[in-house]
């Protein structure tokens, strides 16, 4: 998205977008569970807000943001320096294969 900017721009942008989608999906999953019990989506939303364990919800979101951030960092590094070079940095050079 920002090829002329430092990598942190792409990492931040992608992390925010992925985290926002994860937040919405996580909330909608919970909302659907309550919606199966009551006839109206507004009643389900009200039940959800009153009974949700908010510290657990935000802890899961924090974990997701951390994992998404790490994914975006590695993804952008691989794009910038190349997949093969990144693989060599982590795994080391592969031994030559013997041809028969």
Structure in words:
This protein is an all-alpha fold and about 100 residues long. The chain is built from 4 helices and no strands. α1 crosses α2 (about 40-50) and α3 crosses α4. The mean pLDDT is about 90.
Helix content: over 70%
Strand-pairing-aware structural class:
mainly alpha
Shape estimate? elongated
- Classify the beta-strand content into a percent band: under 5%
How many helix segments?
4
Unreliable sequence segments = none
Give the termini distance in whole angstroms. 46 Å
Could you spell the SSE succession in H and E letters?
HHHH
Q: Using DSSP, what is the number of strands?
A: 0
Rg: 21 Å
Query: What is the residue-averaged pLDDT?
Result: 88
Largest sheet features = none
Quick overview of this protein structure:
With 100 residues, the chain is mostly helical.
Helix/strand layout:
Elements (H helix, E strand, L loop, with lengths): L6 H29 L5 H11 L2 H28 L1 H9 L9
Helix pairs in contact: 1-2, 1-3, 3-4
């Amino acid at each position: 998205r920002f090829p002329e900017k430092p990598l942190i721009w792409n990492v931040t942008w992608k992390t925010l977008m992925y985290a926002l989608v994860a937040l919405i999906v996580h909330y909608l999953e919970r909302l659907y569970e309550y919606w199966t019990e009551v006839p109206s989506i507004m009643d389900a939303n009200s039940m959800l807000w009153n009974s949700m364990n908010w510290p657990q919800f935000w802890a899961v979101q924090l974990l997701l943001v951390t994992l998404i951030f790490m994914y975006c960092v590695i993804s952008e590094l691989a794009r910038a320096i190349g997949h093969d070079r990144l693989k060599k940095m982590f795994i080391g050079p592969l031994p030559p294969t013997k041809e028969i």
